[in-house]
Amino acid sequence: MVQKKFQRILIVDDAPENIAALAALLKESYMIVAARTGEQAIHMAQKTRPDLILLDIVMPGMNGYDVCRQLKQADGTKDIPVIFITALSEAIEEANAFKIGAVDYITKPFQPLVVKARVQTHLNLKMKTDMLEALASLDGLTNIHNRRKFDENIAHEWKRAIRNQSPLSLILMDIDYFKHYNDLYGHASGDECLKKVAAGLNETLQRPNDFLARYGGEEFVAILPDTDLKGAEYIGNKIHGMMDGLNIPHAASKAADHVTMSLGICTVLLGHVNPSPIQLVEAADQLLYQSKVAGRNRFTS
Ligand code: GH3
Ligand code: MG
Ligand code: MG
Ligand code: MG
């Protein structure tokens, strides 16, 4: 696999000459960041999200084992591969490194060619894992997130909303008379329509933490963190405006002359006694149903 210089390696060692030697070896092919203490390493790992960490074990303060354990416990850093590079050469020390989650173990003094080869192997694996992870979260037709990723994201945002005492809104959407659309224009046109709607929704949701997924066949769902009901209703209106703008003809719709959607919008402020994410989705589904009954092409909140 061709290596370009977009992968980042964090080198952690208390001895500057060790950092310099490894950096000299790797800087031609990779971006290098460095840390001289365990504490600094954790901070750098969270901030720069490297693709690989080369980690010394014996350091004053936090040692390499502690650093690795802490990295493996945090969501943002747990999937970064860690290679120990250390003067410790006992089998028990090496075994311990793998037990706490390292992918490789290299003893000092190291063979430069071997370090390079092992680093490349683990970076290739990391790239493939990242690619698979991305694919596993995407919907094949619309290229937006899928239901699996939605479940993951709502769990994550739920915790964050509790921690920050911030409102969390959910919008459930369902295309109106979509069965008629397929019947009239054909299934392939139906697929095209779903793609256009997904792209339109993606553009409508602007905030970095806003999340959009295809929830099911012709259903979409948006998670709006730090957004109260008023804010969510504003987005609901924007979505209807976007659909009017798309103006996809739908001669068999009883709601309009173009493709429209019905929405259910709800907001929670999580406190001591909390519902579950599933209950929020069910509530949004009830509201969506009311939008359908009331004539479609509208939202209920
Ligand atoms: P309502 O206004 O009550 O929502 O009516 P509807 O016809 O949209 O609802 P219904 O749930 O009866 O039908 C949903 C339709 O969506 C049926 C199904 O064929 C279509 N559909 C689901 N997934 C896909 C897809 O991936 N591609 C296409 N082309 N159609 C799909
Ligand atoms: Mg050391
Ligand atoms: Mg439906
Ligand atoms: Mg529908």
Describe the model.
With 301 residues, this protein is of the alpha/beta class. It has ten helices and ten strands. The protein has helices spanning 16-26, 38-48, 64-73, 91-99, 112-136, 147-164, 178-185, 187-204, 229-246, 277-293; strands spanning 8-12, 31-35, 52-55, 82-86, 104-107, 168-175, 211-216, 219-225, 261-268, 299-300. A five-stranded parallel sheet has the order 2-1-3-4-5, with helices on both faces. Helix 2 packs parallel to helix 3 and helix 8 (187-204) packs across helix 9 (229-246). The termini are far apart. The protein binds 3'-deoxy-guanosine-5'-triphosphate and magnesium ion (3 copies). 3'-deoxy-guanosine-5'-triphosphate (GH3) binds at residues 141, 174-180, 182, 187, 190-191, 194, 217-218, 292, 296.
Give the SSE map.
Blueprint (H helix, E strand, L loop, with lengths): L7 E5 L3 H11 L4 E5 L2 H11 L3 E4 L8 H10 L8 E5 L4 H9 L4 E4 L4 H25 L10 H18 L3 E8 L2 H8 L1 H18 L6 E6 L2 E7 L3 H18 L14 E8 L8 H17 L5 E2 L1
Parallel strand pairs: 1-2, 1-3, 3-4, 4-5, 9-10
Antiparallel strand pairs: 6-8, 6-9, 7-8
Helix pairs in contact: 2-3, 7-8, 8-9
Bound molecules: 3'-deoxy-guanosine-5'-triphosphate and magnesium ion (3 copies).
One magnesium ion binds next to loops.
